[in-house]
Amino acid sequence: MTEPNPKADLLRYLQDARGALLWKLEELSEYDVRRPLTPTGTNLLGLVKHVAGVELGYFGDTFGRPYFVEEPPPSWWYTEDAEPNADMWATADESREQIAGLYRAAWEHSNRTIETLALDATGQVPWWPEERREVTLHHILVRVIADTQRHAGHADIVRELIDGSVGLTKRTDTMPEGDQDWWENHRRRLERVAREADDS
């Protein structure tokens, strides 16, 4: 029999998404990790920067455990007078190592909060409307997992657009076997079906 451990289950799914996001940065140039590949500017390093801020805010400030205590927060932090979307892209002065390092530090900070508090522990989300600010750790864990997995999906698509790399993790691509010709034929078939559906 396996004893249920909801906190461990939630943390495992969060860590899977964290790891998936970071490995999407591997073996790419500085240009490619910053390159905006959607009309709204979605880019790999910006996604990592954003989720670092999400974790530090939700698992830090929400539960009275702020990360930025001994040093001032970055200019893009929610308490600062940042331009819109400042957490969704990296400036030329913000290195990949800095942002990935901040994300790993966020994991450690978040994990300490998760390990220290019970799932029904309550906190206050400072940037939410007052009438719904009070939350539980369980609620925040589910919210951050959903947000991180969503952005990991964005990263999957952006990375595929950059160099064709696909997959769930570094070691598991979860894709059907097929060479480049197979995939080109598959894509042409989908295009044909889409046009047929549109004409009917």
Question: Can you characterise this structure?
Answer:
With 200 residues, this protein is an all-alpha fold. The protein has helices spanning 6-23, 30-34, 44-59, 96-116, 137-163, 180-199, and strands at 122-124, 134-136. Helix 1 (6-23) packs antiparallel against helix 4, helix 1 packs parallel to helix 5 and helix 3 runs parallel beside helix 4. The chain is globular and about 55 Å long.
Offer a quick outline of the entry.
With about 200 residues, the chain is mostly helical. The protein has helices at about 5-25, 30-35, 45-60, 95-115, 135-165, 180-200; strands spanning about 120-125, 135. Helix 1 (about 5-25) runs parallel beside helix 5 (about 135-165) and helix 3 (about 45-60) packs antiparallel against helix 5 (about 135-165).
Short key terms for the protein model shown above:
200 residues; 6 helices
Mean pLDDT over the full residue set: 92
What percent of the residues sit in helical stretches (DSSP H or I)? 40-55%
Give the helix/strand class. Answer: mainly alpha
Please tally the β strands and state the result.
2
Shape call: globular
- Give the count of helical stretches: 6
How far from one another are the termini? 54 Å
Protein name: DinB family protein
Organism: Streptomyces purpurascens
Layout of helices and strands, plus pairs?
Elements: H1 6-23, H2 30-34, H3 44-59, H4 96-116, E1 122-124, E2 134-136, H5 137-163, H6 180-199
